[in-house]
Each structure stands twice: as structure tokens, then as C-alpha cells.
Input
Amino acid sequence: MTPAGSLLTAHDLHKSYGSTPALDGASFSIHPGEVVAVMGPSGSGKSTLLHCLAGIVTPDRGTITYAGRELSTMSDAERSALRRTEFGFVFQFGQLVPELTCVENVALPLRLSGARRKDAERTALTWMERLEVDDLGAKRPAEVSGGQGQRVAVARALASSPKVIFADEPTGALDSLNGERVLELLTEAARSANVAVVLVTHEARVAAYSDRDVTVRDGRARDLEHAV
Amino acid sequence: MSIGHTLLGLLESGPRHGYDLKRTFDEKFGHDRPLHYGQVYSTMSRLLKNGLVEVDGIESDGGPERKRYAITEAGITDVSAWLAQPEKPEPYLQSTLYTKVVLALLTGRSAADLLDAQRSEHLRLMRILTDRKRKGDLADQLICDHALFHLEADLRWLELTAARLGRLAKVVNP
Amino acid sequence: MSLLHQKHAPAGEDHRPAASPSWTPARLRDLGLGIRFAAAGGREGWIRTLLTAAGVGLGVALLLVASSVPHMLDQRDGRERARTETRQSDSPDASAARSDSTVLRIDAGTEYRGRSIAGFLMRPDGAHPVTPPGVAGFPGPDEMVVSPALKELLDSSEGNLLRERLPYRITGTITDAGLVSPNELRFYAGSGTLTPATGGHRLAAYGDNGPPEPLSPLLIVLIVIISVVLLVPVAIFIATAVRFGGDRRDHRLAALRLVGADIRTTRWIAAGEALFGAVVGMLIGLALFLLGRRFAGAFVVWDVSAFPSDLVPAAWPAGLVAVAVPVSAVLVTLAAMRSVVVEPLGVVRNNRSRRRRLWWRLPLPVAGLAVFALTGKVDETTPVDPYPIAAGAVLVLVGLALLLPWLVEACVNRLRGGPVPWQLATRRLQLNSGAASRAVSGVTVAVAGAVALQMLFAAMNDDFNRITGQDPTRAQFYTSSEHVTGDAAARTIKEFRATKGVDKVIGTVEAYVTRPGKYAKDEMQPTTSLTVGDCATLREIARIDSCRDGDTFVVHPRDKKMADWVDKTARKGKEVELSSYTDQQNGVKPTRWTLPADTRTVLTRRDPLGKENWGIMATTGAVDASTLPGATTVAQIRIDKHVEDAAEYVWNTAARLDPGMRVVTLTSVARDRQYASIQTGLQAGATATLILIAASMLVSQLEQLRERKRLLSVLVAFGTRRVTLGWSVLWQTAVPVAVGLTAAVAGGLGLGATLTWMIAKRVSDWWLFLPMVGAGAALILLVTLVSLPPLWRMMRPDGLRTE
Output
């Protein structure tokens, strides 16, 4: 069932919110270091697929396997721990804690996993350097531009050295130039660190930064190259 | 655009006369450029030669004798292969793509699969262009961007068509 | 939006209100617009209005209750005075002359499981006896009328032991006119045997016609400060409630800016919305008050309850509330909007750059202290002018509330690092500590005031708490029966000894003895007491080494002069006259008794009542107690505390022996009733205040959580533990409350020390603030605990879906 060598695999996921089905038999898989775009029109269930893959939402039916472990058998605490240590997240907006400075935001996942403040912030700064936002360290999210904020968010997603980054419309709120820069930095950093990226987007130009794409339509993911 | 594949596809629903084929073609795809009668016959004889169609019968009720063509197994395979084969992404593809979609709908094949395959092909090219853009200089970037924007427009058209497949099916298959 | 268009469309040139010469109509129009938005603002608008209205309503209801207190106290005092007997003269013992309407009565009050029961035995002298207020018919012998609360108690299974003590048939109930409060326990029982000789006191009428007892100046100071302590937090709470939901409203106002409203207009529209909320709140407050009033009797707060008819707000404070609440709603909103810039497209900027300044906050508390300093010390007895003290206390407490936001900001800005929850909380507070400071300033005033008051109380301990000198470890009850005859004394002691739960009885019969002879009118006849009891009993009241039945002793007080006086009567081998005062008056020939020559002289010992007894003491074998005229039977009783209801059995025995028997419960400290009631009031008020403050902190906490729903979801997405966020919520409440409490304790100690100095007393206890700190901690915990379920609920991925 699980394609050989894949890091994260989902098979036949079903998920409904009330009576509306969001996922209706979706399957997915991703290899280490691979960037996979999840495409589809709005309301097709892309975000739900991402939430399920990341263990934020439990599917009603279906299996999700990460590194040989079945997510549905894990407790909430275990899944939280998994998200803290193995996964990173970038969302479209509203993800930086407004009262924390940028460097504190980037250091947050590390600190949540128990790192000391000094160490966490040092690591955070090196990632911010790679994303060319190290000069924003002491600023609060409200004081930086949208593109800068997104780069800070990407730095945060990378800071905890995750195996998978889940990016949900990471450039949705940015203009194309800023958006492309963020994507470039994200995919480059991910590839060089062998981090898999699940990139949810409805834009082809964003999806073009991926190695492969999966289309979700009516709650069904069509993974053409890895048809399951 | 391949007239041969299109005519083959039209034959899938049942044997037809050459004239019949031309009329149906003009109706569905001809729009403002109807097919020449000679074009139909030359195409059909090529298909006959390649074993993709066969003559089903000859009628001559009073007028000139008319051949009735039927598609062969090899012809059906050829249509399938053609439909499944994504077009090389390039500008102004829509007439070919449109023909393919309608033919898929007419012959009961999955138009959505066709569109998805085409989308993947487009995305594959976009990925290559994006990659070239990343590695290239500013001139490369600008050129690539031009192509990317065009491809993106095509992709949007594909998305839109995919979303309207249901309605299109009703129109072509009343 | 369409409303605005309609309003603006006809007056097209009216877009420059700043240049408009007549600003008032424009402002009134904006206010009206705000009211219409609040009233017709859809679900969101109503939620905000209701939030404000509920808060204001709660505050207003409390203010109305507070403004009813004077009337309530008046009414209670009036009824209390109406049922007191009319005094015949200044002497408390003076009896009325017997007539057709006079009544003999004796106090038969008792205690039942810690509750006092007032009661009288009454016997009419003639056919038309006077009745106390609230009593329709005079109870016949062995009948009684009772208050409804007592009736309920007697009818319940809990009242079984009491029923035994009050065996009279219930023939009626005392109406409200004869009761101070609905939960009062009171009875009037009829007697067929009561005589003046058995302790009956004759009264002719009810109604205290004497001048009311004036409150002591110290009490006035206390009451003034208590009012301030309790009402300032309520005012602060109302001001906070007006700002509930302000952030969401600001975003709505941004839409108005987009269609052309200027900043000033939005401020006044906001004020209009607040005004509407405040007015609705006042109506809610009034409704709450009227509703609560109907059930006033059911609420018993620390033994205080009131009749609904007693709860009538005084006119001027009620009027003040009616005017001040809406006006302050408008002013508070206008002030709050100053620090917010509402821009079109939903951009709301807080003017964060402006730091809180100290200079204008400091003068207020300093002025308060200055007022105190100028007023100087208040004397015990000279009439006190309460206004400067009230003004000083208000200035200090309000000043403290003003200082707090600055203090919180100053403290929080210094906080760095720490674990994640701590970092989240402190950073949050650094970004915006306003909401927290506002809520906490209420706590500060309440706690500072309470600390100051408690210090004051403690310092005034001497005045209010008498050290009785009683020793409750030796005996818990003291009973005395007057005018006993025959073997009543012996019987009393025997019966008490036989009572269940009684450990030990020190029972004596006491009478007065005089030295025989003729004395001039102005010469004092040497007199001393004769106490008869068994050896064990006498040992409790005198330092006796060896004692056998038949022994007699002369007991000397420590004071030499008094000892000499005793010896004048108690001459060994000589006679004394045994007679009572009444006997002498009536010319009854006194009996004589010879004090044996071998009587020993010993020193007195303090009895459990704390009293020293001296004079002649005789064992029961030496004097026949049943022959003593005009003797009083005294019993001091120690009970076994492990026996349930032992005290009740003692009371029952006492009532059976003599319904008029005086029973005193011994305690080491006796409290002044006025003092106790003031402390009760303070406790009741402080509880209500703390609950209000908890409510307002909770609302702002929940509001903030709601605002951050998406952020919480994001935090959950990247694996934040619930515990982490729970702690951050706790710290976010705890840090400002801790700063507030520290300020409150410091301010309270300062205020308390100042006030103590003013009444010329010394601070006796600096640690009285600890319970208040505990209450503050409980508040933090409560707010956090109640915020947790919504926090858990909001920490779900749903927040990621809504865009």
C-alpha cells in the first residue's frame, strides 16, 4: 500500500464537517526532500487534506502513516509532539504571535520542545539570516511587511529542523514578486535540508516550485504519478 | 489539430458516410472554418490505408455511390492514445484541447482525466521554466516569466473547463 | 451603512464637522447614530450592548442596594425601638405602676446551635394588657407567639431539642412590624406564675422614646471608609463594563470611516453605543434590584437579611446613579477612543507610542494623604467631621487605582525571558496592559481598602473587643436564678449535674450577710456575701488546701482594704444576720447564724467567669442552703465538647428549672455588636466586589481569547501543548493581579497606618492583609479556571478553516 521510500502516506481519507464531505477517499504520499503541490479549486478539500496529513484533524476514515507510524493510533499528545518536532507550518496569514518579537516567534517551536531561550534564539537567527530577515529580529510582527512576515514564518517552520513542512497558501496574501521570493527561499532551504514540503495552493505559478503536484477535486486527491 | 483523429473519434459512435462525417464535424468543431469535402476523402483514404477504418458498405440510392466507414479496433486504440497524449504546452492550444474534450465526451471517455493530464503537462513545463528562471540571469527570468504567465492562463482555462465539464457534456451530447 | 447614507445624503455639505460652528447638534446626531447602531446593529451589536448592559446592570443593582442601606438601617432601628419597653425613668430597674394594661415580663432569651433566640415570658396584670408590635393577641399561659423563622425552626426536625425547651403551644406569629429582619428568631410566651419576686419586671408601654444613641465618631469614620472601599470598585467596574467589546466595535467603526465619517464622529458614535448600553444596563440593574428585592428575605448574608419593604433606595444617591452612569459611559468611551485611531479599511491603530505618565497620576494619592495630615487626630468623643476623612480616603484609593496602570506597565516592561508561557504572557502585557490594569485597579481599591480597614479594626480592638477574663476551658456556661426558695438551689445543681453532656458543675448558693446592730442612715452597714457549696466547688473559687464537709472559710480578696471590710462582717465566733434587701425593706425579722470560731482565712481565686469571690464560704454541711432568704443560685457549668448538642441540653435544663434563668455563654472575648455588624458588612461587600471584579476580568479574558481564535489554532497546529497556553493565561491574569495586590497591600498598609495614627492608636498587627492576598490568589485561579474550557474549545483546528 505504502509506496516504497515514502515518508508520509495517506490512503483513502474520508472527512466530513457536519453533512458536507470535505474529503471523500483522498490518497497522498510524499518522499523525504520532495516538494509536492496540492492543487485544486477552493472548497475542494486541499486544506482539510493538509490538516489530516499534519495530524491536526483526525479523518473519519482512512490511514495516515508517517515514518512507519500510524497517526490515527497516536494520542493527541503524541501527535502534538510530532508536530512540534517533525513538522513545520506556514500559513497564509495571522500565524505570528503579535506580542512576540520576530526572533522570539522563530524560536517559539524550539522553545516549545524544551530548548533554552539563548540557544533557541541563536538557531532562530541563523535561519532568519538564510531567509534574509535577520535584521528584523527585535521587531514585532505588526512592524514588518507582509513579505517579511511570511519569511519570518518560513524561518520559524524551518527552525525546528522538521522532516515535513506544511505550507497552506503561503503566498496567498503576497504580491507575485514577494511571493516568488518566499517560495524560492522555502523550497531551496527545504531541498538543501532534505525537508519534504506539502504545498497547498490554487495557483499554478506557486505549484511550479514543486517537484510534483496532486490535484484535489471533490474531496478526492488524484495523485497521477503515484496512482494508488 | 488532427483532423484524422477527430474523424476517427466521430466514427466511434457508429459507421457514417463521408458527407455525414463532414456535417457532424462542422457542427461540433468547424465553427467558421468548415471542412472541405476533399479533405474528408483524402483523410479517410489515409485512415483506410493505415487500417484504422474500414468500409462498412456502399450505398447508391439514386445518386452517386457513397462509402460508409466504420472504425476498426486499431482505430479505437489510436483515438484513445491520442486523447491520452497531452499536447505539448504552447500558446493557442485551445482549439485542439477543445476538440479533444468534446470528443472524449462524445465517446464516453473521461474528459477530466484528459484535462488533468494536460494540466500535469503544463505544470511540468512550468516547473522546468521555474527552475531555469531560478538558475538564470535577469533576461532568462523575464523570458521565462512570459512563458509562465501564458501557461498559467492556459491552466486557468483548463481549470475552468474542468469545472464546466458537466454543462459541456449536456451541450455536446444532448 | 445605509443608515449613514440616509443621514448624510440630505446634508451634503455637512462633512466638515470641525468647521461647523454649532458642534452640539452634530455631536448629538452622532450620539443618536451610535444609539441606533447599538439598537439595530444586528447580532454582533447586540452582543456588545448586552455585555455592557449586563456589567452596568450588575453594578447599578449593587449601587441601588447600597443606597438602600440607610433606609434599611432606619427601618430596622425604628422597629427595634418600637418594641423596646418605654422607660419609666433613667433608672433601668424602675418598674411601672401596676394597672389594667401593665404587664410583667422576664427575659427568656436563649441560644440554639449558635443562633440567638430572643424571647420573653409575659403575664398580664389586668384585662387589657399592652402587646408588643406585631403581636395581635396576648398569649395565654403556656402559649406563645413566634416569629415565622422560629416557627419554621421549631417545625423542622432540626428544632426537636428547642421544642423541648419552649414547650408552649404556638397560637400565632409575630408579623413583620415586630421583627427587625425576616430571619429573626423571637417569641413571646404567656406565663401564669410570673411575679416580681421571681424576677418579673413591670412595663406599661412599648416604644423607646429616648434620644437615639449617636454613632461614635470612630464608627462614622469606619462607615465612610467602608462605603468608599465598596463603591469605588463598583464604579470602576461600571467604567470597565462600558468598554466591553470595544475592539470589535472599533473594527465596525472602521467601515464608517470608509464611507466618510471623520475620527471625531466615530468617537461620538462609539459614545452613543456605550450610552445605549449603559441605559439598557440601568434598566437591567433596576430590574435586578426589584427582582432581588422580592427575594431579599431569602438571602441571608452572614446572618443579615432584610424585608423587601426595607430596601428602598434613598432619593439622591439613586438620582446620582441615574445621572452619573450614562454620563460616565459617554465620557469613558470618549477618553478610551482617544488612544485608538480608527481608520478606513478596518485598520485600527492603538497609540502605543504614548507611554503612561506618572506625573498626573501621583498628585491624587498625595493630596489624599495631605488631607489626612491636615485633619489630624480624631478624638474619641468630640464630634467628627466625616467629610475630610471621606475625601482623603477617596483620594488615596482612587489615586491608587490611577497609579496602577502606570505601575503595571512599568513592572511588566522590565520583565524578560522566562519559560514560554511566561514569555507569552509578559509580552502580551507589554503590548497592551490596559484591559488587565483596568480590571485589576478594582481589586486594588477593594484590597487596599480592606487592608486599611482591618488594620483600623485591629487597632480599635481595645474599644470593641473586651477581654472578658472568662476562662472557657474551666466552664462554658454561667447560670443564675434569683429569688430561689427552699431546695431550689440544691435541685438546680443536681439537675445540671444530671444533664447529658455536662462534665462538671460548680454550683453555689449566694446570699448577703450583714453585721448585726443599729446603724445611722448615712452609715454603711458592714456586708459581705455568704457562699454555700461543696468542697470541690469552693476549691474552684478560693485557695483552699484541705476541706471537709462542715468546714467554713473566710475568703479574703487580694486588696488589703477590701479584706478589712470583709473582716468587719465575718468575725469568727460571732453572729451575722442573714437577710435580703427586700426582706429588710419589708421589715421581716432576719435570722442569725454564728460563724464558727475555727474558721480558716484563705485567699480568693478567680472563678471561670473571671470574677473574684470573697466573704464567707461554707460547705453544705455547715449551712443549710435551703433556709437562706433571698438567695441566688449560681452554677458554672463545664460541658464535654465531644457530646453533640451538650450546650442545648444545658439550655433545656435551665429552661425547665426556671424559664427566666439567666444563662451566659462564657467566651474569652466579647465583641461589640456594632463592631461585629460593621465587619459583617465589610465582608459581605468585599465578597460582592471581588465577584464583580472576577466577572469583568473574565469577560476581557474571554474577549481576548475570541479575538485570538485563529492564532490559537495556529499554535495548536505546530504542536503547542494546552498546558503551555493554560499557564500563559494564568500568568496573564496573575502578573497584573500580583502587581495590583502588591500596590494594594502597600497602599493599604500606608492608609491603615495613617488612619490608625489619626485615631491616636497604634498599629497592632501588620499581617492582616494575608487573607486578602489569599482572596486575590483565589480570584486569579477562578478566572483562569473558568477561562480554560473556552480556551480548550478554541484550541481546535476549526480556527484554521475560517478565513
